[in-house]
Design goal:
The chain is an alpha/beta fold. Helix content is 41%, strand content 18%. The protein has a single domain, classed as Carbamate kinase. Helix 2 links the parallel strand 1 (21-26) and strand 2. The longest helix is centred in the middle third of the chain and has 25 residues, at 83-107. It is globular, with a radius of gyration of 17 Å.
Length: 258
């Protein structure tokens, strides 16, 4: 058992947080609830309550949201659309999700700031690295909107980039309908094996659909661990923060670091 894992287990036993600063990556589908597309307010409120619990542990928390819940409803309109234009539309969709989560958190008394990589000055601050870190130091939850601000990059890459920029200790990646990483698609292959631990390199070489390759490479090059877990139970966010061993941990092997 590595020193990192031992510290997480100890934190879990004490009920304390295993991290000081994390970035939570949620797909847009996490906000769907039972809907085909759009935003389920009840689902958002449940996630917000869990984030508040993490915040109350003293963990500096940043969030990156995807836009699949909104973009799914735009798929027909996006057919044949220029790729860059479609990506910018997706960035705007992430802003809608970020404002929704911000409102839910603020109604729970959690101070938040939305920082956007694309200009939306009426509703969000422009993204500045030092500003984001200062907000975290002031115990505000920071929500990053607009992806990286550039087309051809996913919100997974935005999550990896922002996590590294703010000095997060880990990316916590909540997944819908799956409790971690498998060696195949469990929907297509019922015999797919669950993988409790693996390295970034293994995930890349085996083509496992955890994050896109750009995001995984960023995490690997900077030894940033990724905790992948299911969001069927929103309480899993707090469980991971407390160091419970659920889901899959993706990290860099010591020999790779050396």
């Amino acid at each position: 058992m590595s020193a990192e894992v031992e510290s997480e287990v100890a934190a879990s036993e004490e009920g304390a947080a295993a991290f000081q600063r994390v970035l939570l990556k949620l797909s847009g589908e996490a906000l769907l609830g039972d809907q085909e597309y759009g935003i389920d307010r009840t689902r958002v409120e449940a996630i917000a309550r869990e984030i508040r619990g993490v915040h109350e542990l003293g963990v500096e928390t940043a969030i990156v949201l995807g836009a699949g819940n909104i973009y799914r409803g735009m798929e027909v309109a996006a057919e044949g659309m220029d790729r860059a234009t479609a990506d910018y539309a997706g960035m705007l969709a992430t802003l809608l999700n970020c404002l929704t989560v911000q409102d839910a958190l603020e109604q729970l008394g959690v101070h938040t700031r939305v920082l956007s990589a694309i200009t939306a000055s009426q509703v969000a601050e422009p993204y500045l690295r030092r500003r984001a870190i200062r907000h975290l130091e002031k115990a505000r939850v920071v929500i990053f909107a607009g992806g990286t601000g550039n087309p051809f990059f996913t919100t997974d890459t935005a999550a990896a980039l922002r996590a590294l920029e703010i000095g997060a200790e880990a990316i916590l990646m909540g997944k819908n309908g799956v409790d971690g990483v498998y060696d195949g698609d469990p929907d297509e292959n019922p015999d797919a094996a669950f993988l409790p631990e693996l390295t970034h390199r293994e995930a890349l070489e085996r083509g496992l659909k955890v994050m896109d390759s750009t995001a995984l490479s960023l995490c690997m090059d900077n030894s940033l661990p990724i905790h992948v877990f299911g969001l069927d139970d929103e309480r899993n966010i707090g469980r991971v923060v407390r160091g419970e061993r659920i889901g899959t941990i993706i990290s860099t092997a010591r020999e790779e670091e050396e």
